[in-house]
Amino acid sequence: MKEGWQRSTVGNIATVGAGNSAPQKKELFQGGVHPFIRTSDVGKIRVGWIDDSADHLTDEGVKTLRCFPRGTILFPKSGASTFLNHRVILARDAYVSSHLATIKADDTRALDSYLLHFLTTVRAQDLIQDHKYPSLRRSDIQDIEIPVPPLTEQKRIVAILDEASEGIERAAANAEKNVVNARELFDSYLNAVFSQKGEGWEEKTLRDVSTDFGRGKSKHRPRNDPKLYGGPYPFIQTGDVRNCDHIIQTSSQSYNEVGLAQSKLWPEGTICITIAANIAETGILGFSACFPDSIIGMVVDEKQTSNEFVEYLLQSVKTRIKAKGKGSAQDNINLATFENERFPFPTLEQQKDIVSNLNKLSDHALRLRSIYEHKLADLSDAKQSILQRAFSGKLTAQTHQARGEALA
Questions:
Q1: Which ranges in 291-347 belong to alpha helices (H)?
Q2: What pLDDT digit, counting tens, does each position of 95-149 carry?
Q3: CA-CA distance, 252 to 315, in Å (whole number)?
Q4: SS3 398
Q5: pTM (predicted TM-score)
Q6: Which of 108, 139, 238, 264 could hold 217 in an S-S bridge, CB 3.0 to 4.6 Å?
Q7: Residue 200 CB: number of other CB atoms within 10 A?
Q8: Confidence grade of residue 407 (pLDDT, cut at 50, 70, 90)
Q9: Which of 172, 166, 167, 165 is nearest to 121 (CA)?
């Protein structure tokens, strides 16, 4: 270890605690002015300062709660697993949920900002030794080993890491903006096409333009009976439809001969429409497959339309269809929702032109998404490289090189 540096633990250089249980009375949150920060608020910020929250407590609501000072680090210890690796630091005094660990550095030994940067290198999942206890204990955080340089060195490291992080976040935001712009262009054209119907367009139901239209089949109970699965016939579920990008290319399960016998094998090219759980999601089968009655299957009449046109058409009305399924314990719609709905259909030639334009815009958005994901990976690698240098005592000797790598 570099001269003057010490090896310690987070518990030795900081006070590790936890936030407060949220008040149960709703009126204590009505018209309040005191931020009550939850894991969902932390989830909106990957790393950095946090100064507000979705919920605010009244004066009465905070009477028995502890207020944490500016500079306190929040480290999610339970709740949504996607937020477990987010690290934020309070930009103002605030009240904090008990699902968040609170960490305040001993300012004679460490800077809060130095500790925050170091904790971004620590994966919460690596700290959870007992998988029967899926959240972090205070001791898990206290026992994290940390290199501790002198305060002057910490200040220098923090200045460099702040600048590098700002550049990385700016580059990531610019890449994300390009993706959003491309998606907005696609959505704008999609909505304009189907809301501004041209001359000669006809109103038809989906059944009118189908050779086969109906719900999938999975007659056997229980549906998860192991004797149905493990064969050569793909079995599509609502999640497979939701996660596809136009074409369904993978299945989470497969039927054997027993499973097939109590179901129905739909042909490649069938449009799948979800009507339960993930409602109004669509995709086109890239192979023959079975699916349950929570999915509608549609085999188009190629003399009237194409599966690509109908799938884009259904994307344009997804929001409106979803709204029809709200209000029950589990969002759902039914076959009649689509049987009774009339949709606009232009001539086949016009449909081909519309599909061609939408495919080009969709491909452009996908290319930008791929570039964005590669850019994020490169930026993440650059940041980890800088962090590794920082906490091994090598950063200050290579300041200019580190900055250049972060912003490249």
A1: 307-316, 318-324, 335-339
A2: 999 999 999 999 999 999 999 999 998 888 788 766 555 678 899 999 999 999 9
A3: 23
A4: helix
A5: 0.64
A6: 264
A7: 9
A8: very low
A9: 165
What radius of gyration, in Å, describes the C-alpha atoms of the chain?
A: 27
- Pair of tokens at residue 372: 């964005």
Contact 218, 292 (CB under 8 A): yes
Q: Which two tokens stand for residue 56?
A: 């605010």
Six token digits for residue 368: 């930008």
Cα–Cα distance between 402 and 408 in angstroms, integer?
Answer: 10
**Mean pLDDT, rounded, for 36-51:** 90
Domains of the chain in sequence order:
6-148 (3.90.220.20), 150-201+346-408 (1.10.287), 202-344 (3.90.220.20)
Contact status, residue 276 vs residue 304, Cβ threshold 8 Å: no
Q: Give the C-alpha separation, 42 to 32, whole Å.
A: 20
Query: Are 289 and 282 spatial neighbours (Cβ–Cβ below 8 Å)?
Result: no
